[in-house]
Methionine aminopeptidase (Candidatus Woesebacteria bacterium RIFCSPLOWO2_01_FULL_39_10), 237 residues
Amino acid sequence: MTEGGKKLARVKNLLKSQVKIGANAQDLDRYAEELILKEGGKPSFKMVSSYYWTTCVNVNDGIVHGIPKKELVFKKGDVVSVDIGMYYKGFHTDTSFTIGLDVDSVTEVFLETGKSALTEAIESAKPGNHIFDISNAIQKVVTKGKYSPVRALVGHGVGKELHEEPQIPCFVSGVREESPKILEGSVLAIEVMYVTGSGEVKLSSDGWTISTADGTISALFEETVAVTNKGPLVLTN
């Protein structure tokens, strides 16, 4: 998975340069597939039943699972989230990023908050800790910024399957000791999903796109992280 993660990191970094004003989501998706195939991998998301695209692309109020359509053209002020996974030598890795296109300072602070939350969450991914600790790290940073974590969606384990146990909420739920223990050797797709509004969500008529119910802005940051006896190791960065 280490090798696959490095390959996906390269794909991600090249994709970032193509998220710009005037570009469209379909072209971005096709470029992503081209890059993954060049790396010797396969698009993980195309292995999901009834999903036919390499990426999920969301803009502004879109949170996750957005279909990368040609008519989705990025414009000034947009907040664009891109989620991408790669299957390589029997294992999946998964990563996401969000970019603001010539956004105002308020939105810049919003996006920096998500990056900080992901950093804190990753630091909590240590043997002997609990999933609660990751969730708590995300919630603390997000709510300190006066934003809301998305409660209907979760991060997850990742490996031979794209989505594995344990589930990793972006918010605290239940008692720490009753949440799954973080085990050495496990690999986690840690996701920070948060919004400027209430955090409630709705499903689009396309059957995939999940957006904020109140139309407020959302962002998504994600890395695949291996839990080692020396601490967390980010595979997709």
User: Anything to note?
Assistant: The first helix runs from residue 2 to 16. The mean pLDDT is 98.
